[in-house]
Every structure is written in C-alpha cells, then in structure tokens.
Amino acid sequence: DTDILAAFRVTPQPGVPPEEAGAAVAAESSTGTWTTVWTDGLTSLDRYKGRCYHIEPVAGEESQFIAYVAYPLDLFEEGSVTNMFTSIVGNVFGFKALRALRLEDLRIPTAYVKTFQGPPHGIQVERDKLNKYGRPLLGCTIKPKLGLSAKNYGRAVYECLRGGLDFTKDDENVNSQPFMRWRDRFLFCAEAIYKS
C-alpha cells in the first residue's frame, strides 16, 4: 500500500549477476547516480530509493529474469501519470549493465490512484457538445502523423468530419514543428470544423 511495484524483464550484459542488474535498475530509476555527490548527505536516500525485492528466472529463457522493484510513493507527484512513467522508465533503458529491459507490469496502490482526478467531465458532456446520441462516437488520428503542412492538415480534418467522423486527434508526435506550427494548425483546423 505504500509502494508502486514494477516487474521488469531483465537481460543483463554477460558477466553481470541478476542481483546486481536488478539492484541497478532499482537505483537508476530512483535515487541512484553514477557517483557519490556531497548533496547525498542532505537527505535520507534510503527513504527514497527503489528496492529490488525479488528476482525470478524467466521459464525457458536462460539469460532473462524478472526483477521486482518497489518504489516509495513519495518519489511521485500526486496525480501525474507523466511523472510516474518518466520516473520509472525514463532513464533506465539505456543502462550499460543491461543488454535488454522491458517493463512487464505495474501495481499501483489505491492511495496513489486516488490522487488522479480523472477527466473533467464525462461522456454525457461530450455527447451534448457534439449533439450525438444513441451511437458510438467515431474519430481518428490524422495521418501521416508528421510532414503535413498546417493547411493540408486542416484539409484532412475537414474531409474526416465531412465523411462522418465526430472528431479527429493529433498524433502524440505532433507539436509545433517547423513544417506545421501549432497556431497555424489550430487556425486551419478551426476553419475545417466550422465549414464541415
């Protein structure tokens, strides 16, 4: 109830024992760093460090094992999926002691789940805004995800909406790149929505 539990499938580099690799994953994804620094003495690192509490071999895979790591809830910002995943997997996958690493499972305690507020409103508000009832809402992600000009992106949105979709969304890679700045995309998409 006080820790987020992660199960990592670990393939260590040759010569690295499973216990060392598991401990390295726990350290690198929490308080560990490549050297001791003077500021280590200003906090209780033991309170905040991730702990590899169990290791078990993967059946049929000679060089792989599952490392179970516990992370104290104090390591995470309340209500932030981004912070949780960045903390757990954001820095550990390129670790030199490992040949391969995969996050297999996460157990998130109820106390942490309760810090997430959820969506600001439910499906009924979405249906009311769209004036669409009695059927699933249909949408798509505009493709190609990268490379369209803002004008062509707006054209794709228009065609999707005219074709019967209720909404479109940006791909996660779409931000404000030089070929399609956010403001330009916004203006062309607003025009597409208005005209459709």
Task: For the structure shown, list the relevant keywords.
single chain, 196 residues, alpha+beta, Alpha-Beta Plaits, two-stranded parallel sheet, elongated, EC 4.1.1.39
Strand tally: 6
Q: What is the level-2 CATH architecture name of the largest domain?
A: 2-Layer Sandwich
What oligomeric state do the depicted chains represent? single chain
Q: Report the average pLDDT across residues.
A: 91
Strand percent estimate: 15-25%
Largest beta sheet: strand ordering: 2-3-1-4
Count, helices = 7
Q: State the CATH topology of the largest domain.
A: Alpha-Beta Plaits
- How many domains, as an integer? 2
Rg on CA atoms, Å: 23 Å
Plain-language structure description:
With 196 residues, the chain is of the alpha+beta class. It folds into 2 domains: 3-113, Alpha-Beta Plaits (2-Layer Sandwich); 123-195, no CATH class. The protein has 7 helices and 6 strands, in the order βααββαβααβαβα. The chain has helices spanning 18-28, 45-48, 81-89, 110-113, 123-130, 150-162, 182-195; strands at 3-12, 51-58, 61-72, 98-107, 139-141, 167-169. Strands 2-3-1-4 form a 4-stranded antiparallel sheet. α6 (150-162) packs parallel to α7. The longest helix is centred in the C-terminal third of the chain and has 14 residues, at 182-195. It is elongated, with a radius of gyration of 23 Å. The model has no long low-confidence stretch (mean pLDDT 91). Heterohexadecamer of 8 large chains and 8 small chains. Its cofactor is Mg(2+). It comes from Celtis sinensis. Keywords: Calvin cycle, Carbon dioxide fixation, Chloroplast, Lyase, Magnesium, Metal-binding, Methylation, Monooxygenase, Oxidoreductase, Photorespiration, Photosynthesis, Plastid. Its EC number is 4.1.1.39.
